[in-house]
Amino acid sequence: HEASRSTAHVVAWTEQLQTLTAEALGLQAELRRAIEEDELVLHYQPQVDLTTGATVGVEALVRWQHPQRGLLPPAAFLDAVEQSGTIGPFTSWVLRRAVRDCAAWRERGVDWQVSVNVSMRNLVGPALAEEVAALLAQHGVPADRLTLEITETALPADQGLLASAVAALAQLGVEMSIDDFGTGFTTFAQLRSLPVCEIKIDRSFVSGALADSEDRAIITSVVALARGLGRRVLAEGVETPDVDEWLRDIGCDRGQGYRWSKPVPWTELLDEPARQG
Ligand code: C2E
Ligand code: MG
Ligand code: MG
Ligand code: MG
C-alpha cells in the first residue's frame, strides 16, 4: 500500500514536471516567435526633474502583444524568459528598440534619457558593453542618454564579475541605476565602490509615504545617503501631487509614477508639451 502510494506520488510528480517542461518549452518557442515577429512592445514612463517638473528621461517597460491573450504585463512572462534561457535575445530586442526610439525622439528635438531594465544575467553574461557601444554608434545616440537599471534583488554573489561588468559600461559613459532600492541586498560597500549614477527608491516606500512616518524616515535617509555619495536619487511610484511636493522639499532629484503618467507609447508623451524637458 505504502509503495503504491509513493509510486502514484512519483507518477503525479513526473507528470507535473513534464507539463511544466512542456509549458516552459512552449513558452520558449512562443517567445522566440514573439521576438522575431515583433510582438513585444515598449511603453515609456516619464522620469521628472522634481525642481522643474520637466521630463528628463523615460523608462522603457516591456509588454507582450500576444495574438491570443492580449497585452501581457512583464510579470506574466519575465520569469519564463529568465528560466528558458532567452533573456539574452530578449534584452537585445529591448535595447535595440529603446535606442532606436531614443534616436527617433532626438530627431524631433526631444532630449530625453532612456532607461532600460537589464537582468543580472545580461550584465554578467558576455559582451553587453560591446553590444551597447555598437547600438549607440549605429543610431548616433550619446552614451549618457542611456541608463541601465539593475534590480538589486538580483545582485549576484560574484562581486568581481559584477564590478567589472558595471565598470565596462560606465567606461562607455552609460549611466547605471540601482532599481527597487531598499528591497534587496545592496550593501553600503557596494554603493560606495560601484560606479552607479542613480539610486531608485522602491515604490513600496513612496506611494503611501505621506501616511507613514517610517516610510518617510527611510526615504529621507536614502536621499541623504545618495547626496552624501554624490549619486542621483529617483523615487518611483509617485502617485499624487502631495508626495511629489514632499519629495521636492526633502531634496529628491527625480520622480516617476502615475502622478505624471502611466507607461504609454512614447509618441503619446509628445502630445503634452508641459511634460517635455
Ligand atoms: P520596475 O523597473 O521597478 O518598473 C516600475 C513598475 O512600476 C512598472 O511596472 C510600472 O508600470 C509600475 N509603476 C510605475 N509608476 C507607478 C505608480 O505610480 N504606482 C504603481 N502602483 N505602479 C507604478 P511594469 O511595467 O508592470 O513592470 C514591472 C517590472 O518588470 C519592472 O519593474 C521591471 O523590473 C520589469 N521589466 C519591465 N520591463 C522590462 C524589460 O524590458 N526587461 C527586464 N529585464 N525587466 C523588465
Ligand atoms: Mg526599472
Ligand atoms: Mg523599480
Ligand atoms: Mg519596482
From TrEMBL:
The keyword Magnesium does not apply. Residues 24-277 form the EAL domain. One of its GO terms (molecular function) is cyclic-guanylate-specific phosphodiesterase activity. The keyword Membrane applies. Keywords: Membrane, Transmembrane, Transmembrane helix. This is Diguanylate cyclase (GGDEF)-like protein. It comes from Motilibacter rhizosphaerae. The lineage of its organism: Bacteria, Bacillati, Actinomycetota, Actinomycetes, Motilibacterales. The chain holds residues 355 to 631 of 631 of the full protein.
